[in-house]
Protein backbone atom coordinates (compact mmCIF):
# COMPACT_ATOMS: atom_id res chain seq x y z
CA UNK A 1 0.00 0.00 0.00
CA UNK A 2 2.97 2.31 0.54
CA UNK A 3 3.93 2.21 -3.14
CA UNK A 4 0.37 3.10 -4.05
CA UNK A 5 0.46 6.02 -1.59
CA UNK A 6 3.70 7.27 -3.18
CA UNK A 7 2.06 7.11 -6.61
CA UNK A 8 -1.05 8.95 -5.38
CA UNK A 9 1.10 11.60 -3.64
CA UNK A 10 2.97 12.36 -6.85
CA UNK A 11 -0.19 12.27 -8.99
CA UNK A 12 -2.01 14.58 -6.55
CA UNK A 13 0.87 17.04 -6.64
CA UNK A 14 0.96 17.03 -10.44
CA UNK A 15 -2.81 17.50 -10.68
CA UNK A 16 -2.61 20.41 -8.22
CA UNK A 17 0.04 22.08 -10.35
CA UNK A 18 -1.97 21.44 -13.52
CA UNK A 19 -5.00 23.04 -11.90
CA UNK A 20 -2.93 26.11 -10.98
CA UNK A 21 -1.42 26.26 -14.47
CA UNK A 22 -4.86 26.07 -16.04
CA UNK A 23 -6.30 28.86 -13.92
CA UNK A 24 -3.27 31.15 -13.71
CA UNK A 25 -1.66 30.81 -17.14
CA UNK A 26 -4.14 29.52 -19.68
CA UNK A 27 -6.97 31.69 -18.33
CA UNK A 28 -4.76 34.81 -18.38
CA UNK A 29 -3.85 34.18 -22.01
CA UNK A 30 -7.58 34.61 -22.75
CA UNK A 31 -7.83 31.13 -24.18
CA UNK A 32 -11.26 29.58 -23.94
CA UNK A 33 -9.48 26.26 -23.50
CA UNK A 34 -9.33 26.70 -19.73
CA UNK A 35 -13.11 26.27 -19.41
CA UNK A 36 -13.07 22.90 -21.09
CA UNK A 37 -10.05 21.77 -19.03
CA UNK A 38 -11.35 22.95 -15.67
CA UNK A 39 -13.84 20.14 -15.02
CA UNK A 40 -11.65 17.14 -15.92
CA UNK A 41 -8.57 18.50 -14.16
CA UNK A 42 -10.61 19.60 -11.14
CA UNK A 43 -12.44 16.29 -10.84
CA UNK A 44 -9.20 14.32 -11.17
CA UNK A 45 -7.50 16.48 -8.57
CA UNK A 46 -10.46 16.09 -6.21
CA UNK A 47 -10.40 12.31 -6.45
CA UNK A 48 -6.63 12.19 -5.99
CA UNK A 49 -6.83 14.55 -3.00
CA UNK A 50 -9.44 12.39 -1.29
CA UNK A 51 -7.38 9.28 -2.06
CA UNK A 52 -4.25 10.91 -0.61
CA UNK A 53 -6.01 11.82 2.64
CA UNK A 54 -7.62 8.39 3.06
CA UNK A 55 -4.42 6.50 2.23
CA UNK A 56 -2.45 8.67 4.66
CA UNK A 57 -4.92 7.64 7.37
CA UNK A 58 -4.60 3.99 6.41
CA UNK A 59 -0.79 3.85 6.42
CA UNK A 60 -0.40 6.00 9.55
CA UNK A 61 0.44 2.96 11.72
CA UNK A 62 2.35 1.11 9.00
CA UNK A 63 4.80 4.01 8.62
CA UNK A 64 5.03 4.50 12.42
CA UNK A 65 4.26 8.22 12.17
CA UNK A 66 3.65 10.15 15.35
CA UNK A 67 0.77 12.64 15.47
CA UNK A 68 2.98 15.58 14.43
CA UNK A 69 4.27 13.72 11.35
CA UNK A 70 0.75 12.64 10.46
CA UNK A 71 -0.48 16.23 10.64
CA UNK A 72 2.45 17.41 8.49
CA UNK A 73 1.53 14.76 5.90
CA UNK A 74 -2.09 15.94 5.90
CA UNK A 75 -1.29 19.68 5.77
CA UNK A 76 1.19 19.13 2.91
CA UNK A 77 -1.71 18.17 0.66
CA UNK A 78 -2.81 21.82 0.72
CA UNK A 79 0.56 23.21 -0.35
CA UNK A 80 1.95 23.25 -3.87
CA UNK A 81 4.88 20.80 -4.02
CA UNK A 82 3.95 19.58 -0.52
CA UNK A 83 3.13 16.04 -1.57
CA UNK A 84 6.43 15.72 -3.42
CA UNK A 85 8.24 16.60 -0.17
CA UNK A 86 6.18 14.10 1.82
CA UNK A 87 6.79 11.35 -0.71
CA UNK A 88 10.56 11.77 -0.34
CA UNK A 89 10.88 12.51 3.38
CA UNK A 90 8.13 10.62 5.24
CA UNK A 91 7.27 7.54 3.19
CA UNK A 92 9.62 4.68 3.97
CA UNK A 93 9.93 1.06 2.81
CA UNK A 94 8.53 1.43 -0.67
Descriptive report:
The chain is an all-alpha fold and 94 residues long. The chain has one domain. 73% of the residues lie in helices and 0% in strands. It has helices spanning 2-26, 33-58, 67-76, 82-89. Helix 1 packs antiparallel against helix 2 (33-58) and helix 1 packs antiparallel against helix 4. The N and C termini lie close together (9 Å). The mean pLDDT is 89.
Question: What descriptive keywords fit this protein?
Answer:
4 helices; mainly alpha; 94 residues
The assigned structural class equals mainly alpha
Order of helices and strands: HHHH
C-alpha geometry? elongated
Question: What fraction, in percent, of the residue positions are helical?
Answer: over 70%
Mean pLDDT: 89
SS summary, helix count:
4
Give the percentage of residues in beta strands: under 5%
| Terminus-to-terminus distance | 9 Å
Rg over C-alpha atoms, rounded to the nearest angstrom: 15 Å
Q: Unreliable runs, pLDDT <50, ≥5 residues? A: none
Question: How many domain modules?
Answer: 1
- Give the total of beta strands: 0
Amino acid sequence: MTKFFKFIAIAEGVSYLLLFFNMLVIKRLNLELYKSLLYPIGMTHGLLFISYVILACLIFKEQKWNIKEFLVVQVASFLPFGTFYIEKKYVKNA
